[in-house]
Amino acid sequence: MTAYEEIAEALESLSEGTVDLVRLALDRGEDPLRIIDEGIVAGMRTCGDKLAAYEYGVPELLVAGELAQECIKVVRPYLDPERAEAKATVVIATVQGDIHELGKNLVALLLELAGFAVVDLGVDVAPMAVIDKAEEMGAAVIALSSLMVTTMPAQQEVITYLRDTGKRQRFRVIVGGAPTSQAWADSIGADGWAADAQGAVALVETLCGSGEQI
Question: Quick one: which of 18, 67, 169, 203 is 20 to 30 A from 60 by CA?
Fold first, then answer.
């Protein structure tokens, strides 16, 4: 078993020794990016699969997320700034009126692990606050989470405000959350929808790698 596989397995098992394995791998001169991709990301992907298969619950996923974040902190100083340059910037938020953040936090973490610069605005964020921050940060993608049917219209408001201010073409807007669907995304003119965190990362990868002007 490689050092990367050991890290992935330890993270999948929610082992407190995962961070120590990352430090050991770095001390041995292992590739920091492979530690992230084949170790931390692979472990989180397996945890996500276990959640989907009902083998893990939300508490286990939270523990895995915290471990992954600690591992990233250890690896970050070893990354070559040129090699570690972010693919693109994503501004993510839970929409106005909604205070749920577990799903958003997981998407933000996986996006960061996948190499994106993530600006997390938190919960209950007003539409114009999202747009202003996306402009300020030069974001390529705006990701909007809604966990309640009553707050879904706030996702649409962001897109409407972008259109009204002539800024719609500057950003790709994706939506997600338990009550949302592809049909909802289509109806409000979003650029995409994802059913889960891993799907959101794949969607952002596709949008940012499409070759289209963003």
Answer: 203
